[in-house]
Amino acid sequence: MTTQAVDAETMDGLEEHVRDFFTGHSVARTGYALGDGSRGSVAALRILEISPGPAAGGWAYATVGASLHADQRGNGREFVLTAPVRDPRFADLSAMVASYHCGPKPHHLDTGHSVPIGEPWVPGSACDHFLVSLPYLHGPALEHCALSNGHHARFLWLLPVTSSEIAFRRTYGTEALERLFDEAAIDPTDPHRASVVRPDTTPTV
Question: Which of 53, 126, 160, 187 could form a disulfide with 25 if both were Cys (CB 3.0 to 4.6 A apart)?
Answer without folding.
Answer: 53
